[in-house]
Design goal:
The chain is of the alpha+beta class. It folds into four domains: about 130 residues, Beta-Lactamase, CATH 3.30.450.20; about 100 residues, PAS domain (Beta-Lactamase, 2-Layer Sandwich), CATH 3.30.450; about 150 residues, GAF domain (Beta-Lactamase, 2-Layer Sandwich), CATH 3.30.450.40; about 130 residues, Histidine kinase-like ATPase, C-terminal domain (Heat Shock Protein 90, 2-Layer Sandwich), CATH 3.30.565. The chain has 16 helices and 23 strands. A hairpin with a 4-residue loop joins strand 3 and strand 4. Helix 9 packs antiparallel against helix 11 and helix 15 runs antiparallel to helix 16. The protein is rod-shaped and about 190 Å long.
Length: about 650
């Protein structure tokens, strides 16, 4: 602007110059003189700043500058006028412009000097960079997010070569960006996961959406790292896919929690099965299930719960030999009744009551001295305990090469062993109570027989004998005498029965000589067609030595067998008498021994008697009927 008299005029650029600017420049443009007045503006600039056509010419340039920048802008403008030179756009200046309506926008401005030194002008080209700045800010925010993320964020080209590697990837996998950028992403993929990775990349490449999935990647030390990986395509400026982006989230803690939860769930399920098994075992015990069947339930449930290959329950033998005996077995070569030596691990467990746990073979040559004939792998032996101490052993084993038993497995075996020990003790108590009840019944029956039946029989016999003195008829007297003898025999039978009941009520019922003679007589009854009578005189069980009992049983068995085969008898009586001698007399009322061929059985009985310095005679029974076999051997003098 120059002064001419009192009139101020605006220096204007020639019209042909403005037309040239409008025609050539695709961006908003202004021409400013040395005083800072806008000499010209193209329509794009007018629209950018919100001025009507022609209205911006002659306006001071500061009008287009926000007020907070005007003081500094004046100095910058004066400096530029003094030293004009081109300044391209993007000169890293943070510039702002002001529209006519008062709104601001970020601007990128390029400057170029025009005209001549006498009339200097400046060409300013303005671009609104609001959108670009938003992109810059978004990229900056994205970069900050990628850099600060705890997740590994990796990008690769289409061949899998790493092109970016954030700090999260360095923390997770141990490689720095310098060690990975330009290297293949495949070095992070375990060998057994390559096929899986190839399939996922192919699906992503084809445009399919692949959800996040759990996998493993290798860290710098070659260790597996559990990650949740998300993979997507990266598109370039042209819109074409030019790589992959992968986000790897560390899920090590989650996997550990899942593992613990699965372990807790498995433990809970196992405990439920354990409680169900215990309930079944208790129910079987209290319902009166036999010991063998009850032990089989125990071994079956232990085998199922522990995934065992062999289970055995071992108890002491009843013969007091100190040896062990298999009471129940599953999955082993040993069967019920087989013996185990006391020098095995089972014997040691029985003696000490301490559990034995092994993870593999324990004996020489792969032999398992704890369970001969059983799998030789991991094993657990636990004592069956009662209130009085160990009463048996529960042995559990797995095949060679299988996983050893864990501490929880050992605890489970010990629980079953304790339960089995209490069950056996309870069963023994129930058997003793039943035995006591039986003994009480036998004592009562024996007492009643003695106090009532025998006394009545005596009374009847005495009455018959008294009546015989007043009867003159011989036939009637004979009949009375026969009846009296029958009553005497009946009284002897009743006394034998009373004595037998008393003996069977003692502690050694099964091993007494009297009981075994009764058993032999009972076994002969089906062949005879009736029950033979037995009469015992004297202390049979205390005076007859144990080594003589087999001979006694042989005599009774052979004599009753002969009577069943040859005598055709209606009654047979076995009389066993103990004094200085043992005398066994077996008498029948059959057809007698006349005409009978020689019996090898009787010859054997005679030899048995002779070997013990005794005799055996075969004669006629009472009143000349039937046969009487009398076997007699001396007895040692009583002690004391």
């Amino acid at each position: 602007m120059t002064k001419a008299g009192d009139e101020t005029q605006v220096s204007r650029v020639p019209d042909d110059l403005v037309e040239t600017l409008v025609r050539l420049l695709p961006d908003p443009a202004l021409v400013v003189d040395a005083q800072g007045l806008i000499a010209a503006a193209n329509p794009l600039a007018e629209r950018l700043f919100g001025y009507p056509p022609g209205a911006i010419a002659g306006v001071p340039l500061d009008v287009l500058v926000p007020e907070r920048f005007r003081s500094r802008h004046a100095g910058h403008r004066a400096s530029y006028v003094a030293h004009p030179q081109p300044r391209p756009m993007g000169a890293s200046l943070s510039l702002w412009a002001l529209r006519r309506d008062g709104t601001e926008f970020p601007a990128d401005i390029s400057l170029a000097p025009l005209g001549v030194p006498e009339r200097p002008f400046t060409l300013a080209v303005i671009r609104d960079i609001t959108g670009r700045r938003a992109e810059f800010q978004a990229e900056a925010r994205l970069g900050a997010i990628v850099s600060s993320s705890d997740d590994a964020i990796v990008s690769t080209d289409m061949s899998g070569t790493v092109t970016s590697w954030n700090p999260g990837a360095e923390r997770l996998l141990g490689y720095s960006s310098d060690q990975m950028i330009g290297r293949s992403f495949w070095r992070l993929v375990p060998g057994d996961r390559r096929e899986e990775m190839e399939e996922r990349m192919a699906r992503v490449r084809s445009g399919m959406r692949v959800p996040t999935y759990d996998t493993k990647r290798l860290d710098r030390d070659g260790h597996d790292v559990d990650v949740a990986e998300t993979m997507s395509l990266v598109h370039g400026v042209s819109g074409e896919a030019d790589g992959f982006a992968a986000v790897l989230h560390d899920i090590t803690e989650r996997k550990q929690v899942e593992l613990e939860l699965r372990s807790l769930l498995a433990a809970s399920q196992r405990r439920e099965r354990w409680l169900a098994a215990m309930s079944e075992i208790r129910l079987a015990l209290f319902s009166g299930t036999e010991q063998a069947a009850w032990l089989d339930i125990n071994t079956k449930r232990v085998s199922e719960l522990l995934d065992a290959d062999g289970v055995m329950v071992v108890l002491p033998r009843k013969d007091l030999s100190g040896e062990l005996e298999v009471a129940s077995s599953r999955g082993v070569a040993l069967r019920v009744g087989d013996r185990l030596h006391t020098d095995t691990l089972a014997g040691r467990t029985m003696r000490t009551g301490q559990s034995v746990v092994r993870s593999g073979p324990g004996g020489s040559g792969g032999e398992n001295e704890a369970l001969p004939g059983a799998p030789v792998g991991p094993l657990v032996l636990a004592a069956l305990t009662s209130s009085s101490g160990p009463i048996g052993v529960l042995a559990v084993t797995r095949a060679l090469g299988r996983a050893p038993f864990e501490s929880e497995d050992v605890h489970l075996v010990e629980s079953f062993a304790q339960q089995a020990g209490l069950g056996l003790e309870l069963a023994e108590g129930q058997a003793e109570r039943a035995q006591f009840s039986l003994v009480a019944d036998r004592e009562r029956i024996a007492r009643d027989l003695h106090d009532h039946v025998i006394q009545r029989l005596f009374a009847v016999g005495m009455s018959l004998q008294a009546a015989a003195h007043s009867i003159a008829d011989q036939r009637a007297l004979d009949r009375i005498e026969d009846s009296v003898e029958e009553l005497d025999a009946t009284i002897r039978d009743v006394r034998s029965t009373i004595f037998s009941l008393e003996i069977q009520a003692t502690e050694h019922v099964e091993s007494s000589a009297r009981a075994r003679i009764l058993d032999v007589a009972s076994m002969a009854a089906p062949a005879l067609g009736f029950q033979p009578r037995l009469q015992f005189d004297g202390p049979i069980d205390t005076r007859v030595p144990e080594e003589l009992v087999p001979d006694v049983l042989a005599v009774v068995r052979e004599a009753l067998s002969n009577a069943a085969r040859h005598a055709e008898a209606n009654t047979v009586e076995v009389h066993v008498q103990v004094g200085d001698e043992l005398v066994i007399a077996v008498t029948d009322d059959g057809k007698g021994a006349a005409g009978r061929t020689r019996s090898s059985g009787l010859a054997n009985l005679r030899r048995r008697a002779e070997q013990r310095h005794g005799t055996m005679d075969v004669g006629v029974g009472r009143r000349g009927r039937g046969t009487c076999i009398e076997w007699r051997v001396p007895l040692p003098a009583p002690r004391g």
